[in-house]
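Comment thread on ticket #2218

A.B. wrote:
> Attaching the input chain for the structure job we discussed in standup.
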Amino acid sequence: MSCQLKNDHLIVDFAEQGFYQGKRFDWSGFITGVTLRQGNHSFCVPESLVPGLGTGGAGLCNEFGIADPIGYEDAEVGELFPKLGVGLLTRVDDEAYQFHKEYPVIPFQQEVKQEGSSKLCFTVMPEECRGYAVRLEKEIRLEDNRLIVDYKLHNEGSKPISTKEYNHNFLGIDQHGIGPGYTLKFPFELVPEVDEEGSMDSLLFQGSEVNWSGAQDSWFYFRLQGEAQAYHPQGWIWELYNHESQAGVREISTYPVDSIAVWGEKHVISPEIFIKLNVAPGESYSWSRIYEFFTK
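C.D. wrote:
> Ran it. Output below, let me know if you need it in another format.
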């Protein structure tokens, strides 16, 4: 059964139970659609437009431990390790963890509670695994044109939890392909780190903005380092705007940013803002992501 939140400004759609069964993204609060009622603008797209390709991401879905899931390094081949928000995965070989690899999974149990038309609460139950046990609470609510995701991670095990979390933000405004109609903006001077130069030929870096000289015809990926904390005086981290639709979305969260990356394809732009989590046994940690959808 799928869920939906709505108020006078936004309609937010969630994936049905079983829609996503991958080993990468948090299964709880998997947002597949956001509609801004003023102008009927849409914002969420799938990771891949070709069924069966990619890792199954869509819309606003988060991931814990893209490179460092807790317990993987000290797990023997054949032993279990926890992938937060997903379940207990089995280490299959001596190689480093890879987010796109298939690992057998025992899913965590989840509870969902809806409180009115504009608030949903998700709880991922702890499952002890070699000293690791985490209860994850996620409250998703609407306030005017803002979508707010409140996280609370409780360490109920005997070992510390040290990992990173981010939201992949699979965005494409009104289904417009990625190109000159888009501007992605950060509140600091951009100095991108690029792995493959050829993938960036259409991107134009101008001060704090990313623009496009032509239609994006392949994937791209870059990282931003050194100025991640500079957004605090402005009160927002990033903003994506489509000039044809005259609609956009910005993240106005205030958690401590660990690092920033941007991934995209012909149809999707994903600003990825990472937070580092270190939670001792018996302690809890809370943070929030706040998205503001707007028209000009």
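A.B. wrote:
> Thanks. Noting for the ticket: The radius of gyration is 19 Å.
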